[in-house]
Prior knowledge:
The chain has helices at 18-31, 38-44, 46-51, 107-121, 136-144; strands at 9-11, 56-59, 62-71, 74-82, 94-98, 127-131, 148-153, 159-163. By secondary structure, the protein is of the alpha+beta class.
Amino acid sequence: MIALSETPRLVEPTTAVRISYLTGEQADMRARGSDTSWLTAASTDFDGFVADRVGVRQRWGVPSTLFWFVSGEHYLGTLVVRHRLTEDQGGGHIGYHVVQPWQHRGHATRMLAQGLVIARSAGVDDALLTVDPANEWSRRVIIANGGAPEEGLNHEGEQRFWIRS
């Protein structure tokens, strides 16, 4: 297991983790059987790729901010804070993922805890998170951060959890 030199923290996307971002995302996408073609453009112009992800941007029709969870030169995952819910409330206020090489080590739990602080500073008092009911690991992360499940599933077949301030 690789020892991390620093305590992981959420930061704005940065070119400082270029290699670990690209290799981590590639490994994660391949493990999920997802398309990796977007990584070609990202690797060709990583500076531009990062610049397009910094700051508050319109994504999914709402203002949102992306953060990367990093430790020194190591990229561990991504977290997005939506400053308000989309019209259909799909995805909730916060979305996150930890790339394959770093999963199941507590990083998602710590990342979400840090993300909740950021969301509150952006005006999100009560955060909605959604998760595929089959994703037990993510359900555990949300519950560990105070998430309370709602009955039933949303229109996307996901379970909804609220984390109250």
